[in-house]
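Re-run requested by the PI after the first attempt was lost when the workstation crashed. Everything re-entered from the original request form. Ligand of interest: uridine-diphosphate-N-acetylglucosamine.
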Amino acid sequence: MDKFLIKGGVPLKGKIEVSGAKNSALPCLAAALLTDETVILHNVPYVKDLITQRRLLEDLGATVLTPELRTHKISATSIVTFEASYELVKTMRASVLALGPLLGRFGQAKVSMPGGCAIGTRPIDLHLKAFEQLGAVIELESGDVVARAPKGRLVGAEIGFEKVTVTGTENVMMAAALATGKTTIRNAAREPEIEDLAELMNRMGARIRGAGTETIEIDGVEGMNGAEHTIIPDRIETGTFIAAAAITGGEIEITRCNPSHLRAVIAQLGTAGVEIAELNQSTLAVRRSASGLKAADVTTEPHPHFPTDMQAQYMALMTQAEGDSLIRETIFENRFMHASELTRMGANISIHGNEATVHGPTKLSGARVLASDLRASASLVLAALCATGETLIDRVYHIDRGYEMIVRKLRSIGADIERIADSSSANAEAGQGV
Ligand code: UD1
């Protein structure tokens, strides 16, 4: 398994570019299953999860061409199976996004039930209940979810999610697009990725209103067409770079981002002593304020509030802030795995249930640490960037799932980071070399 070797203490300086949003590209690729015409997606990040999603589409019978590294031309003209295998679902939960479009277009789908993952149980019960409300019959057969529309086509319905679910909202939008009649989703997720998916789907001929609000209305259509679409910038990568500048006391410009997608993160980090200036609609200038970082409490909540996907990076940053910061995680029950690794580096963090208190500031020193999930890996990279000495982060395949060319990007702004490739894997930077 590849590792990162990081020598900390270098203030980051220069310009860094944000890639396309992983969590938008994943559902947009799945949406290409809704039509037999070609869907062209630009700004698809070159990360492991997208390679897995591409494989899923190809296994189903679609062809995916990449005339350029970040452009995907997907044609789901002839689908040969309606089944997403356990092998794929176990490596990437987002494979469940195949359920909605397959069920919507073909009236049948079979996807392995995702199991637990490092950050919690992450069930899909709300997706399945919503599909049933759209008229699907759902059965569980030896670990697989088998879904059928008995009349061949789903029927529009009123769906009220009892809990906000991002992938659930996306799955239902895709299933309902080709249903007969109107579907209303209440308590829908409001993430920018939902709006991006709706924009693509509307270009494909769907009739979706209200994406980005808590009520989404979908008028079912008879068929959908090909379209061309550019994926939005990754707001979590943007937030991670802001934290990287702040934790190293550097000064960077973040380009090709969309600040309007991360208002809560910008506000929270501003309160904690990070100066963030919007130079234009897609560029941020970031530096730590002269008075230093100050402790500030935060609670993770669905968008537009502070995202759970920034919690681990925020925790790393707060180890350098003056005072106690209380961090409440309300989305996933087991998402403090990075805390014990940060503690090994010298952080002082106490955990009580879903609350962590970071007592800062503490000097961090390099250590051997283990990445446990995607965002936890990012927090360890941040900690290592400000630690004295060398940090060796193991299991960085987690970070390869969602951060495009992270080593190359951080090096370009002065970080002393290198990938130590496992001789048994040809894995460097998701296959590109560093
Ligand atoms: C998505 C993101 C992930 C992010 C998360 C929260 C993608 C591919 N993944 O994950 O990066 O961390 O949103 O913003 O976009 N729940 C249920 N039953 C369900 C579905 C969800 O109980 O059927 C619960 C989950 O356990 C969790 C909460 O609802 O506690 C939110 O989950 P959800 O928004 O569905 O997360 P994901 O879509 O899996």
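Saved to the shared folder this time. The chain has 15 helices and 24 strands.
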